[in-house]
């Protein structure tokens, strides 16, 4: 993609759907990637303000065309760029999630969506925009089942999820 075209598409999507949570996949360290190329990736990620970014390090796979390309990057360079990108994307996702604290979200209750659900007696599910939401059911309220829709007021934000703590 050309960055201006890509960012223009995001702008039009957000104009039509202001609550859209846009995600992306980014591979860092593809053969021939320069520091300037990587800085452009960081700039676009900053401007795009993704709700989540699934980031990966390029790794040479035998038998693939990319494995034969010149200018394979050293692992240390790929790792350093990856860490910078993850830090930026996590910060942006957290900022975007913080905007939802205090709002009510309709959540589709899932089965085993959260890794700690069993240990913490909490439930998890996905909001309409696919954000992960963890929540506790107040004492005396009926326990939801997977597939139920519940309304949850977000009280806390993290980079990868929203939380509703009972008070």
Protein described:
This protein is 34% helix and 22% strand. The protein is built from four helices and eight strands. The radius of gyration is 19 Å and the shape is elongated. With 167 residues, the protein is of the alpha/beta class. Strands 6-3-4-5-8-7 form a six-stranded mixed beta sheet. Strands 1-2 form a two-stranded parallel sheet. It has helices spanning 3-16, 35-48, 75-98, 117-120; strands at 23-28, 52-57, 104-109, 123-127, 132-135, 149-153, 156-157, 162-164. Strand 4 (123-127) and strand 5 (132-135) form a beta hairpin. Helix 2 packs parallel to helix 3. 18% of the residues are buried.
Task: Record keyword descriptors for this entry.
22% strand; 4 helices; six-stranded mixed sheet; alpha/beta; 167 residues; two-stranded parallel sheet
